[in-house]
Amino acid sequence: MDRRELLMGLAVGTVVPFVAGCTAHNEALGRSQLMLVSDAQIAQLSQQTWQQSLQQERVTRDASKRNQVNRVGQRIAQSSGMTQHDWEFVVFDNDQVNAWVLPNGKVAVYSGLLDVAGNDDQLAAVIGHEAGHVAGRHAQERASQQMAAGVGAGLAAVALDQGGVSNAGMWAGVLGAGLTFGVLLPYSRRHEYEADRLGTDYMARANYRPTEALTFWNGMMARSGGSGGPPAFLSTHPSDAQRMQALQSHITSSGYA
Length: 257
Hints:
This protein is mainly alpha-helical and 257 residues long. The protein has 11 helices and 5 strands; from the N terminus they run H-E-E-H-H-E-E-E-H-H-H-H-H-H-H-H. It has one domain.
């Protein structure tokens, strides 16, 4: 084995115990998660992303839309019990049928989605789902997965080039990519199921009708059947028949139907 192979092996071997020691139990999900990103790091990255979004997007001047989203959003936030976050709900004046959340409780709803959601209950399904991602710490988990995937190659490169493992630039880059993948690109199917389940629980606690979640998501699925491709919301929140079955099962077993 030459020096290059030895250093590569040592770098990759370092990852396994490092990653194994960085898990945390999530009570909301009832499972452990890989957590390589601290709350402070994710909060800083989230705030930066939120400020950039406020600069790049146009906030609606429609008071009725702003009031609706804030009214529903605050009820969902309260029912979720996540009072540690400074929740903020903003409507962007954009025809896209889309919504997203950052891990620090900043929620963006596009005006195009409000034209599709038929009532407050259906809007609560969307915001409840997004709150479920926050409770599930899905962005942190996905960022951590991205970091873990890059650690082996990063450590190997450092070992080969410098003979060390300290590289702040590499970590900052991975964290940034992690936030992008965790927020703006598709979550895993498991994350979507978990967000659906938590979201309907928050809807019920806030006295919204969880069955309207099925109405909304089925309507979104129907919209994706056209030749123009799925709405932006479905590109980041994949939906399928199995997901709807899981959501129906949870609503029924919880006595929400």
